[in-house]
Amino acid sequence: xGPAITSFKRYLGVRSNNEAEYSALIEGMRLAxxxxxxxxxxxxxxxxxxxxxxxxxxxxxxxxxxLYQQALQLAAQFELCQVQHIxxxxxxEADQLANEAIQDALPGYRRQS
Length: 113
Hints:
Blueprint: H1 17-34, E1 39-44, H2 47-53, H3 65-75, E2 80-85, H4 92-105
Parallel strand pairs: 1-2
């Protein structure tokens, strides 16, 4: 397993958690492609997105279909692209970056526990 290229954060606006997960995957894939990455392993804590990307689940929610299709098109540009599930406690950095992006965009925001 190679090192991460970089980390990034961006406020996405009001979206469902699954839309946000797909958007993060898409942005990460674009970033990897722009850096010439040919073999990608994306690790996510969203079981739904991982299982949809691996073909275990069908995409039923209409709002996710275009994001799913976009992610598949990007995945096809890699020689190897894997999307793997990790548990949320192993994804603390991504969670922190997401919260920072929200706080940067909405200074009064406080995360609900």
